[in-house]
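Q: Sequence in, structure out?
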Amino acid sequence: MKTTTIQEIIKTIAEGKVKIQDFSCNGQCSKCGECCTNFLPISQNEMADIIEYVINNNIKPQKHILVMQNRLTCPYYDGKKCVIYEVRPLICKGFYCYKKMDMETARKFVKEKRVTADMWEFANDIEEERVKKWGKN
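A: Exactly. Output:
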């Protein structure tokens, strides 16, 4: 197994060296959720924005019937759309299965230090804070 950095991965994707399956519909996002994975490289700033947005908007992690045991889908994808779309991480903003990532987005992506977050673990931590503010509802 070869280890690599996130910068190398993004560069490889931006250069078009990775074959990504196109799930778009006539060149537009079909909102299929295939790219809404559970493990995302996100920055501290993105984490803070997501925490604030989720708590202030009383957003709960979404239930995914088919993948609940494996939890492979982002907890903020409801089956139709991203419920944190306004504050989604840069990796989500810059990814399109129907076109190659541009180098400007790739540069922005590697500019900030990122960690690979387990979004379910992250969402569960935020949920505790959300419940403190809003209650169980």
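The chain has one domain: 6-134.
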